[in-house]
# Entry
Amino acid sequence: MAIVLIRQDGKLDLWKKAFLDQFPDLPVYLFNEPHPRESISMAIVWKHPEGTLEGYPNLKCITSFGAGVDFIIKDKSRPAGIPITRVVDDALADDMAEYVLTAVLGHLKNMDQYARDQYAAQWQPRPYSRIADHTVGIMGFGTLGSHVGGALSQLGFRVIGWSRHPKSHPGIVVHHGKSGEKEFLSKTSILICLLPLTAETKGILNKSTLNQLCPGAYLINVARGGHLAENELIPLLNSGQLSGACLDVFRQEPLASDHPFWQHPRIKITPHVASVSDPQSVVPQLVENYRRLENGEALLNQIDPDLGY
# Structure
């Protein structure tokens, strides 16, 4: 049994070193170096090229380097029936909460507008809002959503959640299903998307959904680019239904240099950095699942590919 690492972002050597620093005897290989394909039992992947999971006759588990698994599920060439797992990590959750807090507080105090004013050498004091003025709605109340909601609640925000199925969280009302979606949206002045990307949630951030928010609402998408109906965002911003948007994820990444989002004054863009797996933190969890695989034990954080999470 052995592990193969598959990703294309220039971080393969960094990850292999992290594995071997902590587990020197671990049989771990890079997909782009000679390796015994028949010995590979676990493939750890991040946005892998479609087809690279073929040719491993003894593959028993496909694992994401991070929390997302949508890129694995959409790979039609992946071997059928093989368990898929993801990372659930405290550091990832903390990173996500810090990013969201930064975006929310910056919105309240007009920091994006002041950055534009500075660039234009314009001195223009502007009215600001306070924590008490807003209700933050979190779409997707799983591990990350509940952690972000708790962090916002501790700061004094009114926080509500929405999930596909009933969930509970101390001090936070979590709406669920289609029946709870309308009430959730109508109360929300800052919307944070942390949904998994599935057939049901693809394009959910569309004109119909966003028009149900409080007028002048602010959108933060830190889930997946596929959640947003991109061609419907700018009209909502121009009409005033949305006061702004902070986007960390996009349908096509990197975002094309001629994409209209770059030039819109009320869209903040970051390059998919809200929450990035830290090798030192994540490697022990990945190796734990490899050991479980070796011993025929139940895997940690296994997802249902039919549900998408």
User: Anything to note?
Assistant: The mean pLDDT is 97. The chain has two domains: 3-89+277-295, 90-269.
